[in-house]
Amino acid sequence: MTIPLRNTPAPLLSETPFPAFNTALLQDLIDALWLEQLYGFREHCKLSPGNGAANTPHVLAIQLDGRRCLQFSGRKLDGMRPFRVAQEAPTLLTQDGQTRRLTAEDAVAHLQDAAWWRDKSGRFRHFFLLSQQQAGAMASTETAIVEALRQDDGELLHWERLSCLKDRPFHPLSRAKDWEGDDDVGRYLPNAMRPFSLSWIAVRRQLVRGASQADNGDQPLADALLDRASREQLNRAAQAMQLDDDSWLWMPVHPWQWHWLHIRRAEIAGQCILLGSFGEASPTASLRSLVISGCSDVHLKLSLSVNTLGAIRTMPPRYLLNAVCASALLEKLRQDDPWLARHMLLCDETRWWAVNTDASTEEHAGLIRDPGELACLIRRYPTSPGRVLIPMSALPVCLEDGSLPAFDYLAANIASGTGDDRSETDWRLFGAIAAMVVGIGLRCIAKGVMPEMHGQNLLLACNGAQIEAIVLRDHDTLRICPPSLRKNGLAVPAYLIDRNTPNTLELERLVDLLAYFQTLAVEVNLYAILAALALRHGVPESHGWRIVRREITSLLEELAIATDDAALIHSSLLEEERWPFKQVIAPLLERENFGTGMPSKMGNIANPLLAVGG
C-alpha cells in the first residue's frame, strides 16, 4: 500500500527555548542517526568543548556540506550514545560565516538537505513533523495523566497513556501516525483522555473466519464487550433491521476504519451493514488496541489502516492464526519449565474474527493474501487480586520535572522499610527486572523460541512490593528456530507465512534467533530503562550494563542447555566485539510501499557488555 506524502506546514520560527518534547525529539534523532550510522552520520560529526557553561560544556557539530553546519550544545556521554542535548540551549545553523537559531523542524529540514543525505523524498521531515505534532499533543496531557495515576495507579489504561509520552525509545519517528489526510482524528488518540464510541456492523457468518466457526449462533463479541444496557440497545437495532437471526454476526469496527473502508474498499464495506454505535473504548499507544470501558481485564484489538512506523496496522488472518499457534507453544514451554510457569504469563489471544476480503476459493491462498482490513481480536489479561500490570514501555518515561513515575511507583513499593537510598533502590529494582527479562528470553531461546520482548509487548505483573511475573502479549510475533525446536523435542508450529515477502518468523540458525533478544529485549527495552536511571543518578551507563551482564552470566551458569548451544550463546552475548542492531530509519526511507510489517534490517554496534566484562 502506498502512502502519499502531505506537505505538512511547519510551525513558525521561534527564538524561545524548545519545549521539552522538542528537545526529546532532537535527542532521539541524534541517538538514532548515531546508532544506525545512517549515511555515514558519525563521519560528519565533531564533538568539541563548548563555551564552558556547567550544563553545556560540549558542542556537537554536524557538517551538512561545505557551507552549512548544525550545532547542538549539551554534554558528552560515556556509552553507546555520545551526547546529551541541553534543554535550554538553542540549535544553531552556521552558514557562510553567519549563525542563526533554528526550530526543531527547520533543523530536520536542513539535515535531510545535507549533501550526504541520500533520501530525497522528503519523507523523513514528513514523519518528523507528524511525530512532533503527536509529541506536543501528548505533552499537553502530561499533568492529566499523572493526576489520573495518582488517583488510581492500579488501572492499566493510565500506565498505557503514560507510555505514550515516550513511545518507542531512541526512535525520533515513533510517534508519527499518518491517517492519510484526515485531520479530524483527535478523539481516536490517547491524548484525548476519554473514550470514543465503537461502531458495530452485521456481517453474514459465512463470510467470517476465525472463532465465529464455533459461535453456535450466539453473539460472543457483544456479550464480551458490552454492558447490559448497550447490549440491549444493539439487540434492538439488529431486530429493527432484521439482522438478529443466527446467520448474522455482530462485530465491532473502529469508526475511522469504517469510514476508510467506505472510501477505499467499498467492496468490503458493501458486505456489511452498520448497526450503530454502542459501547466505549479508549486507545492505547498502539492505537488499534483499545481498553474497553468497564472491562479492565479485556482489551479489543481492531484493524486500523493507519501508517505507524512504516507499517499499516491491519490484522491479516494469517497473523491471528499464527498467534494461536504461538501461544500454544509458549504454554507448552510453561508446562515444561516451572520457572517459566511462575514468571512468564500469557494474554489469551485465541478469540478472533476476520471478514473474508479475498475472493479466492482456495482457503490457504485466501488466508495468505487477505490483508485483514476488517478484523478484531479479544485479548484477556491474566488477573489476580492485588495485581497491577505496567507496560515496560512506561518505565523509562521521564516527565518534564525529571521524575520517572512508573519507576517511582515500583521503587516506592519495593523500598518500603529497606532503608536503602534512592539510587540503591532504583538499581536493585532494575536488577530484578533485568533478571526477569533475561530469564524469560534465554530460557525461551534455549528451546528455540523468542518472543518479541520490546517494552510495549511486555508488562510487569506486580503485587505490592513483589514483581511476580512478566505478561506477554501480541503472540503473532513469536519467532522460532525449527532445528532447535526439533532438537528439544518440540513440535514446530504450523505458521502460515507469505513466502513472497521477507520472513523473520522462522529462522534456521539459533544465532539469528538470539539477535532478537539482543536487539529488542536488551538494546531497546532494558537499555531505555538503564539509560534513564543513569541520567537520573548521574552515573555512567556502564553501571546498568554491568547489571545486565551479571544477570546474563548468572543465568547461563545454571541454564540446562546443549553444550554447543550454550557456547554459542555465551560467545555471542559476552565475547563478540559486535552485536546486531535493528535499524529502522534507513528501511523506512527506502521502502516505496508500506505493508503490515515494520520496515527494518539488521546492522551492528559495539557489544555493550564487552566493556563491562570481567
From TrEMBL:
<dbReference type="GO" id="GO:0016881">
    <property type="term" value="F:acid-amino acid ligase activity"/>
</dbReference>
<dbReference type="Pfam" id="PF06276">
    <property type="entry name" value="FhuF"/>
</dbReference>
<feature type="domain" description="Aerobactin siderophore biosynthesis IucA/IucC N-terminal">
    <location>
        <begin position="157"/>
        <end position="395"/>
    </location>
</feature>
<dbReference type="GO" id="GO:0019290">
    <property type="term" value="P:siderophore biosynthetic process"/>
</dbReference>
<dbReference type="InterPro" id="IPR007310">
    <property type="entry name" value="Aerobactin_biosyn_IucA/IucC_N"/>
</dbReference>
<dbReference type="InterPro" id="IPR022770">
    <property type="entry name" value="IucA/IucC-like_C"/>
</dbReference>
<protein>
    <submittedName>
        <fullName>Siderophore biosynthesis protein</fullName>
    </submittedName>
</protein>
<dbReference type="Pfam" id="PF04183">
    <property type="entry name" value="IucA_IucC"/>
</dbReference>
<dbReference type="InterPro" id="IPR037455">
    <property type="entry name" value="LucA/IucC-like"/>
</dbReference>
<comment type="pathway">
    <text>Siderophore biosynthesis.</text>
</comment>
<feature type="domain" description="Aerobactin siderophore biosynthesis IucA/IucC-like C-terminal">
    <location>
        <begin position="431"/>
        <end position="583"/>
    </location>
</feature>
